[in-house]
């Protein structure tokens, strides 16, 4: 029967930590290959004092192929990258750039002023400005007795 000894507990923890590092390194390689095969654009999300900024890399996507919507604190970006018509599919030796339709949903960290939302597409980068909603002061609710 194994006996747990307090004096040897940290040695086991260090061994466990080394095993976890090894496991995470192998997952990172796997996750890297998954990330390169994704069918939606990568985004960056920035926080400023009075607004949020989101940027997405979408080269080759035309503004008319983009659709933005916001509802219940979720920003939804839909887009479509057209196929290259001059090149038949059977002639590709390698095709890494995504094509076709994609959709990305992002939960917003706070309420935003949906009326002030702006989007700009420039040089293949979509920039969405999301102004923060004004803070609502807590309201007192009177209790009525009958």
Q: How many independent structural domains?
A: 2
Cross-sheet strand order for the largest sheet: 1-2-7-6
Structural class: alpha+beta
Task: Name the poorly predicted regions.
Answer: none
Mean pLDDT: 82
CATH C-level class of the largest domain is Mainly Beta
Radius of gyration: 25 Å
Structure description:
- This is Spore protein SP21.
- The protein is α+β, with helices and mostly antiparallel strands and 146 residues long.
- The protein contains one helix and seven strands.
- The chain is 19% helix and 32% strand.
- The radius of gyration is 25 Å and the shape is flat.
- The model has no long low-confidence stretch (mean pLDDT 82).
- It folds into two domains: 10-36; 40-84 and 99-135, Immunoglobulin-like.
- It has a four-stranded antiparallel β-sheet, with no helix packed on it.
- Strand 3 (66-71) and strand 4 (74-81) form a beta hairpin.
Give the SSE map:
Layout: H1 9-36, E1 43-47, E2 51-57, E3 66-71, E4 74-81, E5 100-107, E6 118-122, E7 125-131
Antiparallel strand pairs: 1-2, 2-7, 3-4, 4-5, 6-7
Protein name: Spore protein SP21
Keywords: Stress response
Pfam families: HSP20
Structural descriptors:
single chain, 146 residues, alpha+beta, Immunoglobulin-like, 2 domains, 4-stranded antiparallel sheet, 3-stranded antiparallel sheet, 19% helix, flat
